[in-house]
Amino acid sequence: MSPTSTAKRLTPAMADAIAQEMRSDPTVYLWGVDVTVGVMGPTRGLAKEFGPDKIRDCPISEAGFVGAAVGAAIGGLRPIVDIMFSSFTYVAFDQIVNQAGRIRYMTGGQLSVPMVIIGSAGAAGANAAQHSEVPSALFMNAGGLRVAFPSTAHQAFWLMRSAIRSDDPVVFLFHPALASARGEVRDEPLHLGDAEIGPEGTDLSILATGMMATRARAAAAVLAERGIWAEVVDVCSLSPLPWDAILKSVRKTGRVLAVEEARLTCSAASELAAGITERAWADLKAPVKRLAVPDTPIPFAPTLEESLIPSEEDIVKAAEEVASA
Amino acid sequence: MIDRRTLPSRKEQNGQMTEKVVLKERGESWLRTMVRGRLFEQSLGELYERGELVGVVHLSIGLEATAAGVCSNLRKGDQITSTHRGHNHMIARGLEPERMFAEILGRSTGYCGGKGGSMHVANFELGSVGANGIVGAGVPMAAGLGVAAQKLGTGNVAVAFCGDGAANQGVVWESLNLAALWKIPVIFVCENNGFSEFTPTDRVTAGPGIADRAIGYGVSGVVVDGTNVGAVSAVAEGAIDRARSGEGPTFIETRAERWRGHHEGEESYVGTYRETKEFKDPIVQLIQEMDAAGLDGSLLYEKIHAEEKDLIERSLAVAQQAPLPELSTALEDVFS
């Protein structure tokens, strides 16, 4: 089945990609908690086609089943683990960071760990501090892990295909509030390591992922009405960072706003700001600005939650500041 | 309600003699493996003493019978995951002393190009995905290797070596749960040497015993004398056969004391934390058993010891002359 220009929602696009890979590669397995039911979306419907052996429900023991996926990956399978909320990776942190992310290196390149860990990332309304985080920066810093964070069905489909085929462990995040976001899946493959640019612009570059990328695109439309042409760089591959694409945009606009739905300190936005300043200082017309969540956990009450996470209006305001600085 | 009568019970397999026919067939191989491991680690101890080793080394002198007894029942394609105290597992799996020395000395010819060191020696072709610096962390990986073997239909099994310290890591029991549920061809081998690093394990471990915990998962828990290579081998052989034929995991607890401390050089900052005494020697025990069976273990030992001593000395000399890694390799092997 070719995905040519099909309107898809985001998590079903992930499921499509998984199904395509499973049909063509018998070593692809998927396991996690409640994956048969498909509670979180990316696995919904897969059990019907592939059965309970390929789509396997696990006990709620993240360290155990992630560790088993690491071993299975070394042993010749391509396991996909659905961890549900990405905050649950913290339960399995040793296996993800200290094992999966280190094994190729520690063994001098002898062993590969081709596995994908899927988790939702971000606030979807009143899920409170332990189910609402975007942990991408932790995994960017871990070393040896690839990180993908698509914001559209198109990105989700192609990056998932690329992630399953990768010989490295991939942390694959999606925003729960974008799970049903509908979009075209075009016949234009994206690969891990790519960024996606759009809309194009000349006045400033807005770098963002997940819900922030969605809001950045909406903000760009508002800014355009006010005569500010913002270029949105959706950094849907966060590790390794797609510096070529990022710097190309930065050198064109000379102004940068990095937005992230995560705590500011040591966030992806912080890394982007530092990296751009080091690499493209001469091209910058204004200081790089970061817009992120204050250094607090995510609160429960919807009004509190909303107050901490950059909104479309926040992005417009920050972009106007950068454009006029 | 769980019907306790249907649960497997803990078995104790201690003190039995290995049959002469088995000793005749396998005694020499066990002896050679254990002597090689012993001499390899004694060399490491001496190197450390002379200040010629960097990093931390954890010796398993006194525990050779578990490695030799278990691994002598594995075949090509089977995989093991090991622990920070893993040199004997690697030797028993057939890794070459020369490349192991080179790895531990940080040389380019080491199994991992000098990027792993003592705690990460690995070679997939020979059936070891590696030692591990995190207590218990190799155990779920062994379960996963078993799943891969099961799904790829290779007929291979995996062995998860861990220590008594790991018996208090949740992930070990999470793995046993998965292994029991999915009938994974994996064998859990817990080497109980009595100490979790520097702390007596019985001071930090609740319940009647480590192997007893397996019974709660519906898995046989077997306790075996870890200084008796024949006894270890007999238990492991049965467990490996069952795993290979699709009957799932067995949990084996081997009991033997480590002769050395948690790691070499600990005397410089740790006081006396355990009594000094004479430990049971698995090598001497095997020699005596062979002698008693009329197989002249003593004479065989003389021969093997001389050959292995020569091998270890030559291996070390070559490893010491091996080049250091190119500095550029420090940036390689992060991603595929």
Descriptive tags:
heterodimer, A: 325 residues, alpha/beta, Rossmann fold, seven-stranded mixed beta sheet, five-stranded mixed beta sheet, B: 336 residues, six-stranded parallel beta sheet, two-stranded antiparallel sheet, 8 strands, globular
Short description:
The complex is a heterodimer of chains A (about 325) and B (about 325). Chain A is of the alpha/beta class. Chain A contains 12 helices and 14 strands.
Which helices and strands occur, and which strands form pairs?
The complex is a heterodimer of chains A (about 325) and B (about 325).
Chain A (H helix, E strand, L loop, with lengths): L5 E4 H15 L3 E5 L13 H9 E3 L4 H13 L3 E8 L7 H8 L2 H4 L9 E5 L15 H7 L3 E3 L4 H13 L4 E5 L7 E4 L10 E2 L6 E5 L1 H16 L4 E5 L2 E3 L3 H11 L2 E8 L4 H13 L8 E5 L8 H7 L3 H13 L1
Parallel strand pairs in A: 2-3, 2-4, 4-5, 5-7, 6-7, 10-11, 10-13, 13-14
Antiparallel strand pairs in A: 1-8, 6-12, 9-11
Chain B lengths: L10 E3 L6 H30 L14 H8 L7 E3 L5 H6 L4 H8 L33 H15 L5 E6 L6 H12 L4 E7 L2 E2 L2 E2 L9 H6 L5 E5 L3 H16 L5 E6 L26 H11 L4 H25 L15
Parallel strand pairs in B: 1-7, 2-3, 3-4, 4-8, 7-8
Antiparallel strand pairs in B: 5-6
Helix pairs in contact in B: 1-2, 1-9, 1-10, 2-8, 4-10, 9-10
